[in-house]
Specification:
With 120 residues, the protein is mainly α. It has one domain. It has 5 helices and 2 strands. The chain has a two-stranded antiparallel ribbon. The radius of gyration is 17 Å and the shape is elongated.
């Protein structure tokens, strides 16, 4: 497995299993589908919003999640004592920081992780 493939494997996992699922959770909360007390309290508050306000809130969910991922990736890039590695088929450990020229930047651009892997 190449460094590029390992980096993309990590990115795909991060986008599909973290980003998209977090956005899904907030969409379920805002539509009243989550039944826990806190989610229902948020839903009750959102019910008083008009359609324009709700649309704004819904568009805000991915932005908040993306900002959080950006800061996580930037922090992982800066902190040398924390290493995230992908284990290749050959049992080699590939450090994603070393495989990238800027982890936070992997999210964006026309061939970034969000556009390639997100369903949101």
């Amino acid at each position: 497995m190449s460094e590029k493939l390992a980096l993309d494997l990590f990115g795909e996992y991060l986008i599909k299993r973290v980003r998209d699922e977090a956005i899904d959770d907030w969409e379920r909360i805002s539509s009243g589908k989550m039944k826990d007390k806190e989610s229902q309290e948020i839903y009750q508050t959102l019910k008083s919003f008009n359609s324009e306000q709700l649309e704004f809130i819904t568009k805000l969910f991915p932005k908040v999640v993306d900002t959080t991922l950006h800061h996580l990736l930037w922090s992982l890039e800066q902190e040398e004592v924390i290493n995230v590695v992908v284990k290749s088929d050959e049992n080699l450990l590939i450090n994603i920081r070393e495989a990238s020229d800027g982890l936070a930047g992997e999210l964006y651009t026309e061939d970034g992780w969000i556009l390639r892997y997100s369903s949101k």
